[in-house]
Amino acid sequence: YYDGFGTFSIAITATPKGLENYEAIVSVIFSYINMLIEKGPQEWYYQELSLINKAKFDYKDKEGAETYARTISSGAHNQFVSPQHILSHGALPRGYDANLISKCLSYLNPGNYRLFIGAQEHKEVECTLEEKHYKILHHISDLPSHMTLGVNCSPNVAKLLHLPGRNSFLPNDLSVAKPATIADPPALEPVLLIKSDKLEAWFKKDDQFFTPHGSIGLAISS
What we know:
By secondary structure, the protein is mainly alpha-helical. The chain has helices at residues 16-20, 22-39, 43-58, 65-76, 98-106, 155-158, and strands at 129-130, 137-138, 191-195, 200-203. The two termini are 44 Å apart.
């Protein structure tokens, strides 16, 4: 959001069959939102999100100067961001408010949304309007009543919808144990651990920065 205004959007990439059944996709989305409303805000999810985002912020990699300057200047001009939060704006959650979450969820209802469908062709629609700048043909119409009132998927589908479980892999301690003797100079190349006619596994230990970062790269040939 910027200056107190934001848009909640959900983007779905559909197959050709999914495009033909877009109304069913919309019904599943609102059924999931209804489930969130019924279950209510979950503070444990906020705590997990805060822990993940704090780790990302505390050990953030250096980014490009242009991107960094643009991000900082944008936050500095936002009247809703206090000076002490300019650097962490958009990165760290600030305060759990169950009532505010429930209020925001209440606006996500079938009577308060717009549906955009983008495709090379659509059997049910004839595009007769032309966009001013790029001359894109399009069509605008009101949603039919069955897509604005009581939009829900079938009970068999609804019972499959659920919240994600707790993440048991989140760390509580991100400190890195340094060896008694630090390599000088640090190793510049990885070590080959396994090699066969089907597999190669390489490993490069961080013996220079000692930050809780890891990177796994896979190259699969078939």
